[in-house]
Amino acid sequence: MALNNFFFIPFLFVVISIYWLSTVILKNSKHRKEILYIELIIASYGFIGCINIYYAVILFIVSLISYFSALGTEKYESKSSLIANSTVTILLLILGIFKYYNFFVDSIK
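RESULT FIELD:
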């Protein structure tokens, strides 16, 4: 499913409807913000997963790396720059592998 695909419009309508309905239902909940964030994350993974499940797995791995990096920088404030630099390096390596893998494989052949 791509943005120019006909099925994106119903998907977007369903996501917006569920989000709006959740804001009405959870109006007085103290965890409203977190629940709405989780709904949007699930919708994002679902959208990417409809395009290609491989992309959704990569997005999930990148999300986990970023999440645990943020937890690490909060817990170990003295080493926050080291954690941030290593996280950026890892994410750039993942991007480089994901984006340029086919280019290098074709160049070697």
